[in-house]
Input
Amino acid sequence: MIRDALIALVEERRDLTRQEAAEAMREMMRAGLENPTGEVATPAQFGAFMAALRLKGETVEEITGMAQAMREHALRLDVKVQPLLDTAGTGGSKKVFNASTAGAFVAAAAGAKVAKHGNRAMTSNSGAADFLEALGAQIALTPPQVAECIEKTGMGFMFAQTFHPAMKFAGPLRPQIGFRTVFNILGPLTNPAYAKCHVMGAATPELAERLAQVLANLDMRHAIVASGAGNVDDISVTGPTEIYEVRANGVTHRTITPADLGLQQYAPEEIVGGDAKENARIFREVLSGEGPLPIRDMI
Output
């Protein structure tokens, strides 16, 4: 129960087990269902849980349990082509261009089958859904429609608000809280197509390492979690990037630089984007072989 989880976090001052974290998430998910069975979380419990977890710091086991519970309540996407790739950041780079979403187009053009999962902006200027909508995409598609997009074009977008209907309880509460919560971390981990390959960004190396361990727990085939210089939740062209790579035999770490990729290094202000409309305009220029060179290189 979420009440027991709150007691553990606040009074006992201990980490939750994977099962305890999963059950707390299930109660939050049930609160978004029309006819829930079992205990449901209240708005007060939701806010208290998010604050307590943020103050303590989320462990790998807690994040894993909550991700598994969120997956249970998501609409499933069955795609005939495999393996599937997702590209996502966890946020934190408020002014940086939407490189992970733009990069999904490049990956699809190169032959990858991209099952992109994302939402509107919560803590940044432009989320994946905002960016794609500004490009003219229809984002509120059904699971069969998204599967058809992936099978025919190599890329489809799963709008989190459509594919996680139980999240309608948490949706209005998150902006009211006013700080980043575990949901910023969970979004990229709860792909409804169960994509087995991920390229994920994290604002700090410490978070990147934790996410890599969570992805290993979720049985990823191959994943890369990157944390760029200056708290950029992408592979950066402004300095070194810490890479945590997940394969069947575990997690490995290395550091790469723009020079390692044959690129020059740029100043942080050179990869700044804008709102969704501005980022869409920049991306159209990039697709035309123009646009700012730093952003072209970052994509």
User: Anything to note?
Assistant: The mean pLDDT is 94. The chain has two domains: 2-72, 84-164+176-298.
